[in-house]
Design brief:
The protein has about 675 residues and is an alpha+beta fold. Helix content is about 30%, strand content about 20%. It is built from 19 helices and 30 strands. Keywords: Signal.
């Protein structure tokens, strides 16, 4: 019994020793793995890691030290820092340690809900202590929240640019002092679910605060590449992404397209041959100054990428390709066929293979000198289908700072249906409200303007505050497509008035009462025009139209005996004319383009008046620009057949025509005032 008990105790002891040894080995492995992981990432500012220090820039005016376009962002960051960070406990403010402030272009303070700790954490996330950040590929730093700040070179809108943490594009860097620098970015370094999930309860799009319409809408396809690439179910995508990330140059454009595509949901753990065009291959299709870039069309880019992947049981290596006889034919994931040859040099579909790489998990990568299945004919057909992707030439005229407005104006000027709107655009100063691009313009036809007698309005009315507001009610900030005009939806205009969309079962679309007669007239990639058959909010100029209409009918109030030779003109020596009084008075109101005083003067030409007239004419010829407001407007008349005089009274609303038997006051309205 005693020996049996001893044996049991010894066995238990041996088991305990084995378990302890096993646990110790596991703990050692974990510690070593942790040390290896830390050694992989080398932080440039690791000397100050864990130190609770703050920069001292209270005496520095950040906004005054940067260019004007970044001044608002710098001042906003400085204000928030002063309100929520300066003087917090547990941190020391130092002067001799370098700092870098990463300044977001916009900060939406409403998402914090007045929570000061959240604002403080947000600001500390954007401060790098112990270093003046160098914007170079693969540089990594730690911020004051002990989170990594990684700089990498990426592709934005087909152009290479630096980004931070693969989310915020770097705009510029400015060194303020020897210990302080600013890096301006688009976006921020934090993830805010509040900002991304913000919606409008009232089915009324506030396009000014969102970016939904700033780019052409594409098919609703979930991007799964980044998600699946990091999961165990898609090791192929993960290995390919790691390979592309490790390539210092030459494949950045393909990396950008692949990370933005949906190819990972088509890939499994099979073996693949991947044909990657070089950056130069994509650059060949990029317009030099302006034009159409085919890879700005996402669906086309997605299909091209699929045709560069081949699923196969055994990938063909470069060494095998060099020694085989005959052509090797494969089918791509996109359904096209490729042919690999080794003569005169290794190529695929007669495109030269520049280099090859063999990856783990059965991936063979070939770098190509051209993009497969893209030709001039293909790009030309694609261009006709996607005019909205074409980049425009830069115009210096008529409005350099308003490229959408300038290109729209020039396009409408060539169309005889839009003489009134081009006159309106040319008269009203709205370039400051329609600067840049990404707009939608509802363009009324000439018939729409003539329906309200807007074609009779003088220029000063069109350029007035009411005229500008009415015109701005035809512009929407953000590019809209026909599919975006949904029934019952309200859209804010730049003029401040909303427009309501009505779509019938016959697919007729109305904007307020205006019917869209021509849809989706693309102004390059700057915006969209919709031609409509009615003016939006015409009541804004209702009073002005009434005054002009009364002026048009002025001859109805003139004595019947006045006519024929009683011609009113702005010249002291008018030519002989047989035009009736109605035509004469129509010419009269058409000339009233300013609020200048109008004086009716008997035509008594003397030698002195002729001489003065000649001198005035010579002076006017020397002036290149004479504005209507610079000169008073004077009308001369010659009452030959009728004993008819004109009496003007100070403060009178209109001149009074006085005759022996009666007198008539002509209602010229607010545009005609007496001086004496």
């Amino acid at each position: 019994m005693a020996s049996s008990a001893r044996r049991k105790v010894a066995a238990r002891l041996r088991i305990s020793l084995v378990i302890m040894f096993f646990l110790g080995a596991q703990l050692t492995a974990i510690v070593q793995a942790s040390e290896d992981e830390l050694s992989v990432v080398s932080y440039i500012n690791r000397e100050v890691s864990g130190k609770k220090i703050l920069p001292d820039f209270a005496s520095i005016q950040l906004g005054e030290s940067v260019p004007e376009q970044y001044r608002a962002a710098a001042n906003r960051f400085a204000r928030l820092w002063k309100e929520h960070v300066t003087g917090i406990k547990g941190y020391d403010t130092v002067k001799d340690v370098p700092f870098t402030l990463i300044v977001p272009d916009k900060i939406d303070e409403t998402v914090f809900g007045g929570n000061k700790p959240k604002i403080r954490e947000f600001l500390l996330e954007h401060v790098v202590p112990g270093a003046l950040v160098e914007v170079k590929d693969q540089n990594t730093y730690l911020n004051l929240n002990q989170h990594p700040v990684h700089v990498n070179l990426s592709c934005f809108d087909m152009l290479m640019a630096y980004e931070i943490n693969q989310s915020a594009k770097v705009l510029t860097k400015r060194n303020i002092t020897e210990h302080l620098s600013l890096v301006f970015i688009v976006g921020n370094l934090t993830e805010s679910d509040v900002q991304s999930s913000a919606t409008n309860k009232f089915n009324k799009r506030n396009i000014q605060e969102t970016n939904r319409y700033n780019e052409p809408q594409r098919l609703e396809m979930k991007n799964t590449t980044k998600e699946l690439a990091s999961s165990k179910e898609n090791r192929i995508g993960q290995h390919l992404m790691n390979f592309l990330a490790g390539m210092k140059s030459g494949t950045k454009v393909f990396q950008h397209f692949f990370s933005s595509s949906n190819l990972s949901n088509l890939m499994d753990d099979s073996s693949y041959m991947v044909f990657i065009p070089s950056d130069t291959a994509f650059q060949r299709w990029h317009p030099i100054d302006w034009g159409f870039y085919p890879f700005s069309v996402q669906e086309f880019t997605e299909m091209v990428l699929r045709n560069h992947f081949v699923r196969t049981k055994q990938p063909l290596r470069m060494a095998d390709l060099r020694v085989i006889h005959g052509d090797q034919r494969y089918k791509t994931l996109g359904g096209e066929y490729i042919v690999l040859k080794n003569k005169p040099s290794p190529n695929v579909n007669n495109v030269t293979i520049l280099s090859d790489y063999t990856l783990s998990n059965g991936i063979e990568v070939f770098i190509l000198s051209e993009v497969l299945f893209v030709s001039e004919a293909v790009v030309s057909r694609l261009h006709q289908m996607h005019k909205d992707k074409e980049t425009p030439p830069l115009l210096a005229f008529p409005w350099f700072g308003a490229q959408f407005l300038s290109h729209s104006f020039l396009a409408l000027e060539r169309d005889t249906r839009f003489t009134q709107i081009t006159r309106f655009l040319n008269t009203a100063e709205i370039a400051q409200f329609i600067s840049g691009s990404n707009y939608t313009f509802f363009v009324p036809t000439d018939e729409a303007f003539e329906r309200y007698s807007f074609d009779l309005l003088p220029d000063n009315v069109l350029a007035s505050e009411k005229g500008i507001k009415m015109l701005l009610n035809h512009f929407v900030r953000g590019r809209l497509y026909d599919r975006d005009l949904k029934d019952g939806e309200l859209i804010d205009t730049i003029g401040g008035m909303p427009v309501k969309i009505q779509r019938s079962f016959e697919n007729t679309v109305r904007v307020n009462s205006a019917r869209i007669v021509e849809s989706e007239v693309f102004v390059y990639n700057l915006g969209t025009m919709f031609y409509v058959d009615d003016v939006l909010y015409p009541d804004l100029l209702k009073e002005e139209v009434k005054a002009i209409t009364d002026l048009k009918n002025v001859d109805k109030n003139v004595p019947d005996s006045i006519g024929g030779s009683d011609v009113y003109t702005t010249e002291q020596n008018p030519p002989l004319t047989d035009r009736p009084t109605t035509t004469t008075f129509r010419s009269l109101y058409g000339l009233l383009t300013t609020n200048a005083d109008v004086e009716l003067v008997p035509l008594e030409v003397t030698e002195s008046s002729k001489r003065n007239s000649d001198e005035d004419s010579s002076q006017l010829q020397d002036d290149e620009i004479i504005t209507p407001k610079a000169l008073p407007l004077r009308y001369f008349y010659n009452p030959k057949k009728v004993d008819f005089d004109v009496v003007t009274l100070r403060g009178a609303a209109a001149p009074i025509f006085k005759r022996q038997d009666r007198q008539v006051q002509i209602p010229f309205g607010p545009f005609l005032q007496s001086e004496d």
